[in-house]
Amino acid sequence: MDIILVPGFWLDASSWEEVTPALEAAGHRTHPLTLPGLESVDANRAGIGLRQHIDAVTAEVDATDGKVVLVGHSGGGAIIHGVVDARPDRIARAIYVDSGPLGEGGVINDELPADGDDVPLPPWEGFEDADLVDLDDGLRRKFRERAIPQPRGVAYDPQHLHDERRYDVPATVIACEFPSAMLREWIDAGHPFVAELARVRDVEYVDLPTGHWPQFTRPAELAGAILAAVDRNGQLH
């Protein structure tokens, strides 16, 4: 199976480096992506918005044969959902890592402080305690050293969706920061935060308790959760 891995904000393809070996050892082909504007700290991020990131991942889908699995971490969840909408017949499963699908008109996070076209990684004090669970001082230092400013448009642009077949694509939510039971409670309560997720017809929930960056704090367990989700899809490698 081809597995396309979309990083969250401030991260490039290398953020998956401790996750991909286990996926490849199981016989899968991994495609960790560096999205437009995330090539380097000095990259030009002007004019890069959510649509450009969705289009970049869609192009990666189009470059493969057969169905693919999409994995999106954090803000990458909104991006892969846009790709599910663009290519619903090509996606075997969408896996949301501490994230979920973003519905029509939603934005990833327009409250993040921007500096021109850039959204720099905020200071740690700008995050909730739950975000930072297991992210020790060493991991925080490495994260900040590798962090690349996020294009402002990706965080601020509204999502636009067109094809309701997106609700037929199976999804897995790997819940880290909040337990899956809480997500189910929000769905039952009709919370707008999970309104789009509530419309997906086949969703499984997997709990991986840690902070918001399991690819750094629990990479082996994250790889195992992704493998299990892919295998449950009943697809041949």
UniProtKB/TrEMBL annotation:
Q: Which domain of life is it from?
A: Bacteria
Alphabetical list of Pfam families matching this protein: Abhydrolase_6
Instruction: List the Gene3D superfamilies.
Output: alpha/beta hydrolase
MF (Gene Ontology): catalytic activity
UniProt xrefs under SUPFAM superfamilies: alpha/beta-Hydrolases
Q: Where is the signal peptide, in residue numbers? A: none
Q: Which InterPro entries match?
A: AB_hydrolase_1 (IPR000073), AB_hydrolase_fold (IPR029058), Sec-Metab_Biosynth_Hydrolase (IPR052897)
Name listed for the protein in its UniProt record: Esterase/lipase
The uppermost taxa in this organism's lineage are: Bacteria, Bacillati, Actinomycetota, Actinomycetes, Micrococcales
